[in-house]
Amino acid sequence: MQLYSRDVGDGTPLVLLHAFPLSSAMWLAQRESLSARFRVLTPDLRGFGGSPLGTAEPSVDVMADDVAALLDAKGIDRAVVGGLSMGGYVTLAFCRRHADRVLGLVLADTKATADTEAAAADRLRTAERLEADKTVDVLLEDLLPRLVGPTTMRQRALIYGRVRGLVQSAPPAAAAWAQRAMAARPDALELLGELPFPALVVHGEEDEITTEEDARAMADALPNAELTLVPRSGHLTAVEQPQLFNEAVAEFAAALGRTTR
Ligand code: MLT
Fold first, then answer.
1. What is the pTM of this model?
2. Ligand 1 midpoint to CA 66 (Å)
3. Residue by residue, what is the 3-state secondary structure of the chain?
């Protein structure tokens, strides 16, 4: 599967994987700012944005292999790989399957634990409704209100409107496929302890989808991690507080570039 990807800038490659049910459009502020120092690649994961859904069974491993194929196609051997929420689950799958291609890891507003049985069952119900409705209404009702934090809701209506637009443009079939893939993802906490490269864990202090405990569990399990807490941000730190997010990622990735040259 050839993913559609936006690819801007030069320098150490930095791959950023988007949240559910968004697309590479969410990384606008990162492409604009971080491309001054890095080669920023922001693929649309399968089914979203400009990438086709294909026929594979739902799995975060399939999504991770798509990213590896993208690096092959671009002639990139190793990259800093990061993801936000669902993008983080795919990043963890990428580490399990393609660790030799990772220079460093960014895990934003995500978690390494698998779904509880109840959470997985909920996802499967959502997937069925997405397929039955052929609209993303269920996501607009249940997920959108939790995607950004209360400060963004109160003070930055334009950001909320932008996120709403991104959710509305998600294809229902891709969203259903991704829900099934996330429901089936394995626990990755043990894997973290074996990862040899440095990691940055980012967490929005007003995130209602993943918790600070999730973020700390990852930072503690990783042998070499730093944790950045982002104030006045909910789940979508990169969209809600792009400047703080970009500063943290730029500092982290620049230090990696220096040690690997
Ligand atoms: C996301 O933001 O990618 C999703 O909310 C993640 C999830 O459903 O676990």
1. 0.97
2. 19
3. CCCCEEEECCCCEEEEECCCCCCHHHHHHHHHHHCCCCEEEEECCCCCCCCCCCCCCCCHHHHHHHHHHHHHHHCCCCEEEEEECHHHHHHHHHHHHHHHHEEEEEEECCCCCCCCHHHHHHHHHHHHHHHHHCCCHHHHHHCHHHHCCHHHHHHCHHHHHHHHHHHHCCCHHHHHHHHHHHHCCCCCHHHHCCCCCCEEEEEECCCCCCCHHHHHHHHHHCCCEEEEEECCCCCCHHHHCHHHHHHHHHHHHHHHHHHHC
Domains of the chain: 5-259 (3.40.50.1820)
Site to substitute for ligand 1 among 20, 63, 138, 239, most atoms within 8 A of C-beta:
20
Identify the residues whose C-beta falls under 6 Å from ligand 1.
19-20, 85-86, 182, 209, 235
Which tens digit of pLDDT belongs to each residue from 1-58? 899 999 999 999 999 999 999 999 999 999 999 999 999 999 999 999 999 999 999 9
Among 182, 185, 239, which is best to mutate for testing ligand 1, by the most ligand atoms less than 8 A from CB?
182
* Distance from residue 141's CA to the centre of ligand 1 (Å): 15
Structural tokens at position 36:
């001054």
C-alpha of residue 18 to centroid of ligand 1, in Å: 10
Ligand 1 center from residue 48 Cα (angstroms)? 14
- 59-83 pLDDT tens trace: 999 999 999 999 999 999 999 999 9
